DNA sequence: GATTAAATTTCGAAC
DNA sequence: GTTCGAAGTTTAATC
């Protein structure tokens, strides 16, 4: 990896055409040929970048460019897509190279899968009297997160999201439509459960006759007893 | 901005819980307190990060940590959400600081808005005999990209995407449903236009009686005459 | 390999 | 300030 702080301008041509005016920025050249251009702000997204697989070549600026103050030209190209990124470097303030080696990678937990597992084990968080039929209940267009039965025997399709948005309601609507064709399941009750639900999603759900439940992750986690994980 | 190459392990607790085992990585501390942790691979997304607004503090490792080889501890916290990122540094290989100043920002062109403008000006790319009613035709749930009329007077709702996926078909379906309630427009013909359309989106569109058109961006751009931009 | 859904998404605009 | 859709999205899972 090579890390450079330089005053430069940047041009990109690919999915779109973009230009960065002359300024001082952080350039990160990774071993796979990819390049990131960061400013001292914004979030983790670079101002501009080139994704691997790609190749970086350093070239001499032509006379016109030299007169404009360009001392070095970096050209990064993606062979397949013909995307090209050109960095016109005026001044290099710092230039560091270091071999990082492979990274063991991120170990994470606590995402949607766990939320689904928690809800499946504590259906009372959705409604009283529900019993689990199965998680990831298959349909022609993909599995429903949870299928359950109410105490009166009605089938309940539950879609679980971390953030409930309009797309999730659409997804659940499609599942319900398919499940409703099964005479053993019809009529389906549909529940949209998420840690947070946008107002628009709530409105659409209400319009479609879909119930909304806001989940409390900490409460679900806290209520889980060690024994629950055995089932 | 401070740029450090260090052998470290990282722990994050917030939306999820995550851990990075000991390895050599690039640490970028931006002026707004945010921190990025990059490996020598992957795309532009860091292995781990903390988004602004947040505060970074450097602390002395306790005795246990020191015995484990930790020479420095960085704690980055987000006040509102209580997210916390802790970097346990064992060895610093490089440590650079540089004031970058504000960035003028990216100038870009060629995104969906332009695609919409091009199609509105060249409705023959959709079908022969169409005439523009208006772009961004308003409905209760948001504007339809383009509303046009066929030569026989039928209203045509056109949804334009760069990449046509199932969501776009759902969106267009909702628009058509609403527009169909207007006696001056009914019955609505719906067209889903995109540079690429996924098979599943095509299938759903066909099932809903929505036409699909694959757009050729370069052709649209090339066919545009200077005069067209006046209208 | 293609496709789909999720992301600690981020980013920008409209309301 | 919220909310919502788009992104040169990226990434992981699934077919």
List strands and helices in order, with pairings.
2 copies of one chain form a homodimer.
Chain A: E1 2-13, E2 17-29, E3 35-38, E4 48-50, E5 55-59, H1 63-67, E6 72-77, E7 84-97, E8 107-109, H2 112-121, E9 131-137, E10 144-149, E11 155-164, H3 166-179, E12 188-197, H4 199-207, E13 211-214, H5 217-223
The structure holds a DNA duplex (15 and 15 nucleotides).
Low-confidence stretches of chain A: 227-231
What's the assembly state of these chains? homodimer
SS class of chain A: alpha+beta
- Rounded to the nearest angstrom, the distance between the terminal CA atoms of chain A is 47 Å
Shape of chain A: elongated
Q: Under the CATH scheme, which architecture of the largest domain in chain A would be assigned? A: 3-Layer(aba) Sandwich
User: Can you tell me the CATH class of the largest domain in chain A?
Assistant: Alpha Beta
Average pLDDT confidence of chain A is: 88
The largest β sheet of chain A comes out as: 7 strands, antiparallel
Greatest interface: A-B, 53 and 52 residues
Number of domains of chain A: 2
């Amino acid at each position: 990896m090579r890390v450079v702080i330089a005053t430069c301008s940047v041009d990109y041509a690919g999915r779109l055409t973009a230009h960065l005016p002359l300024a001082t920025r952080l350039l990160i050249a990774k071993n796979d040929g990819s390049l990131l251009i960061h400013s001292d702000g914004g979030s983790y997204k670079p101002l501009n970048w080139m994704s691997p697989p790609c190749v970086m070549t350093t070239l001499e600026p032509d006379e016109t460019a030299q007169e404009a103050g360009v001392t070095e030209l970096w050209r990064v190209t993606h062979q397949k897509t013909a995307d090209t990124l050109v960095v016109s470097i005026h001044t290099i303030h710092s230039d560091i190279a270091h071999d990082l080696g492979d990274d063991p990678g991120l170990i994470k937990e606590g995402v949607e899968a766990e939320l689904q597992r928690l809800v499946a084990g504590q259906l009372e968080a959705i409604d009283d009297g529900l019993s689990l039929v199965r998680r990831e209940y298959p349909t022609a267009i993909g599995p429903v997160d949870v299928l359950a039965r109410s105490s009166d025997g009605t089938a309940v399709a539950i879609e679980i999201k971390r953030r409930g948005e309009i797309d999730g309601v659409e997804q659940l609507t499609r599942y319900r439509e398919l499940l409703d064709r099964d005479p053993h399941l019809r009529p389906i009750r549909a529940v949209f459960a998420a840690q947070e639900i946008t107002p628009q999603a709530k409105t659409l759900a209400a319009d479609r006759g879909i119930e909304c439940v806001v989940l409390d992750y900490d409460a679900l986690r806290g209520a889980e007893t060690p024994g629950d994980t055995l089932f």
